[in-house]
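step=encode ok
step=design start
structure_in=
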């Protein structure tokens, strides 16, 4: 069975001090949770500190992005090896904000995914359609293109896929559980085309305005295996309620 996977994407929020305060409050509150994989993705600047604070705990660390080159003259970028070195097990690749504001293409994200996996990081690979794409009937084409392009020649080990409809991210509008299930089932079918029966072991997360009061219903759907949470992950008590859903 697929173990639920719930990750906090802090985006460009929290200083190192705020990261420390969060983790100090959050860890004792969730230390008995052993039925969910819990992941925090702070900004790069806090990863090292967070890695030290989370060491030996049941909460894993993720970066929000990486660059695909191993090292070199790439001012401002961070490699997979650097991310691993500070204690990360995971990295988010292809978040819609990266695709939208930084023009990251399927090919580019495929390179990032391969570099992360080759270095030993798990990848939380994000996909999802905009409202225009949904309304104009292109939703399934977009999702198919993002899955097949981004995951080309990528194996399934430590691969998690996050379906995040762009119109639901940070907007307070959540996909209904049925809309999430419809998209997740479609994603799983595409993963079956690529990976055969191994697709049944891949966790597919839902992301888009997940909160303590809607997580249980969304998680009840058969192809929803977890959540990627932005806004509602920024306060320890709110994220605690989410990881203790059900
Ligand atoms: C996200 O950043 O991946 C996200 C889903 O954000 P929010 O929960 O705020 O919609």
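sequence_out=
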């Amino acid at each position: 069975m697929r173990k639920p996977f719930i990750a906090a994407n802090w985006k460009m929020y929290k200083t190192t001090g705020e990261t420390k305060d969060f983790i100090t409050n959050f860890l004792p509150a969730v230390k008995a949770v052993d039925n969910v994989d819990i992941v925090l993705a702070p900004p790069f600047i806090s990863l090292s500190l967070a890695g030290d604070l989370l060491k030996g705990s049941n909460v894993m660390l993720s970066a929000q992005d990486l660059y695909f080159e191993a090292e070199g003259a790439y001012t401002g970028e961070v490699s997979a090896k650097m991310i691993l070195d500070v204690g990360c097990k995971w990295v988010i690749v292809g978040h819609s904000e990266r695709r939208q504001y930084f023009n990251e293409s399927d090919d580019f994200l495929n390179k990032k995914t391969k570099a992360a996996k080759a270095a030993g990081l798990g990848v939380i690979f994000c996909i999802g359609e905009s409202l225009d794409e949904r309304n104009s009937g292109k939703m399934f084409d977009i999702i198919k293109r993002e899955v097949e392009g981004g995951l080309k020649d990528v194996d399934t080990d430590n691969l998690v896929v996050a379906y995040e409809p762009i119109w639901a991210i940070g907007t307070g509008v959540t996909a209904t559980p049925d809309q999430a299930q419809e998209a997740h089932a479609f994603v799983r079918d595409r993963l079956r085309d690529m990976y055969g029966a191994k697709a049944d072991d891949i966790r597919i997360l839902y992301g888009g305005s997940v909160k303590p009061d809607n997580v249980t219903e969304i998680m009840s759907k058969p192809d929803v295996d977890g959540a990627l949470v932005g806004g509602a992950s920024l306060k320890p008590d709110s994220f605690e309620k989410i990881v203790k859903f059900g």
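step=design ok
step=annotate ok -> The mean pLDDT is 97.
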